[in-house]
Amino acid sequence: MLISRSFFFATALSALSPDAAAASAPACANATGLTLPKGFCATVFADKIGHARHLTVAGNGVVYVNTWGRHGDVERGGFLVALQDTTGSGTANVIKRFGVAGGVGGTGIALYRGAIYAENQDRIERYALSAGAIAPTGPPQIVVSGLPLTGDHPMHPFVIDADGKLYVDVASATNACQQRNRMPQTPGNQPCLELQTRGGIWRYDAARTNQKFSPAERFATGIRNADGITVDASGRDIFATQHGRDQLHENWPKLYRPEQEATLPAEELLRVREGGDYGWPECYFDEVQGKLVLAPEYGGDGGKAVGVCADKRAPVASFPAHWAPNDVVIYTGASFPERYRNGAFIAFHGSWDRAPYPQGGYNVVFQPLRDGAAAGRCEVFADGFAGAVKQPSGADHRPSGVAVAPDGALFVSDDSHGRIYRITYQGAALESGAAFTPCPPVDAPAGAPSAGN
């Protein structure tokens, strides 16, 4: 989408059918170690560029990445990176860094009306691009400032819709709005005052500068951590991923079995509506039951009671617990087979809270959608990023961002070792009934515990 991370200008290549694009593509030299459906190819577009979070692709094919200097470790030249392939090799041969001096970046990034919008700590900044330039030369303007930075979730992913509205995730400061954060058998705050300034999505005007964060601009609430946020093909329908809460068994062992630490609650894909309440902190989504249920901090009994959750908005799709959906993009390209059109690709960063059971995620998943709702169970589209060790500290690579290019390629960022992947389709059109890798069923067991987890 032209005005968001997933918008692109139509080009001659993107107009090609999948068969025609495949016929003109070079043979796949897949040295990435990724597992993909038949006909797809993954290559390394760039490597070791820093803590790469979200990314966006311009109409001319330039890839822009926000690299978060979480420990002050910003690469020399700036936290924002422009990557360009001028040779047609499929690898970036031009790498330019920029960003306000002293900035440490963040997660969110987008393109809108010839400018780059990027999260930098507590603000969203706008960098103007001159005609023909791939990187700005002047200082940025501040679009929004004063975004909260404290607590568990300090990032501010965002998207800009077709009308120039800027939607910013302001995630929760806590796990479940407890009186003492993450402490065993500690009740939730009644009411949860944190929701006045956290745990939701805020809306601003992308064309204005010097806007200040305040409770007044809240667009939707009850969203613990919407690390992924995007618009659909219309440019106006907002979708967001939600990281489900942690520590159900650890904090409430009398209500939840040990293996339920790894299987509850589900991760979520939300269709975000103005004024919508998606349930956090009072509720979480149980995949097996297919509904929101009451959290133990708010009178829940281990998954039976529903209470106020009956009046909250449920997700349009759900995914295995703790996989950590860090980004989402609606596929509006033309080079992938038709079955992928208008579905969602989601980057799962990978779990930590499934231990001592096997960790999960560390992959890119495809979720079919139709008319804004799930059209079947999700599929594991790209896997193998982590390598031999599916652990936060030992994974080779961890998917963090996804974006669609003008030619229909899917770009994936890795915030572990700064790799940018480019995934293209080079096979014949997929036949009906072709094999895909489904996500685990909703009632999949936790797996065997391990001392190494």
Topology readout:
Elements: H1 18-24, E1 40-46, E2 52-57, E3 63-67, E4 80-84, E5 94-98, E6 109-112, E7 115-120, E8 123-128, E9 141-145, E10 158-160, E11 165-170, E12 200-205, E13 211-212, E14 218-221, E15 229-231, E16 238-242, H2 248-251, H3 260-263, E17 267-272, E18 283-286, E19 291-294, E20 317-319, E21 325-330, E22 344-348, E23 363-367, E24 369-370, E25 373-374, E26 379-382, E27 399-404, E28 410-414, E29 420-425
Parallel strand pairs: 9-13
Antiparallel strand pairs: 1-29, 2-3, 3-4, 4-5, 6-7, 7-8, 8-9, 10-11, 11-12, 12-14, 15-16, 16-17, 17-20, 18-19, 21-22, 22-23, 23-26, 24-25, 27-28, 28-29
Task: Summarize this structure briefly.
The chain has 453 residues and is mainly beta. It has 3 helices and 29 strands. The strands form 8 sheets. The protein has a 5-stranded mixed β-sheet, with no helix packed on it. A 4-stranded antiparallel β-sheet has the order 1-29-28-27. It has a 4-stranded antiparallel β-sheet with strand order 2-3-4-5, with no helix packed on it.
Walk me through the structure.
This protein has 453 residues and is mainly beta. The strands form eight sheets. Strands 6-7-8-9-13 form a five-stranded mixed β-sheet, with no helix packed on it. Strands 1-29-28-27 form a four-stranded antiparallel β-sheet. The chain has a domain at 18-164 and 195-244 and 266-276 and 318-425: 6 Propeller (Neuraminidase). Strand 18 and strand 19 (291-294) form a beta hairpin. It has three helices and 29 strands. The protein has helices at residues 18-24, 248-251, 260-263; strands at 40-46, 52-57, 63-67, 80-84, 94-98, 109-112, 115-120, 123-128, 141-145, 158-160, 165-170, 200-205, 211-212, 218-221, 229-231, 238-242, 267-272, 283-286, 291-294, 317-319, 325-330, 344-348, 363-367, 369-370, 373-374, 379-382, 399-404, 410-414, 420-425.
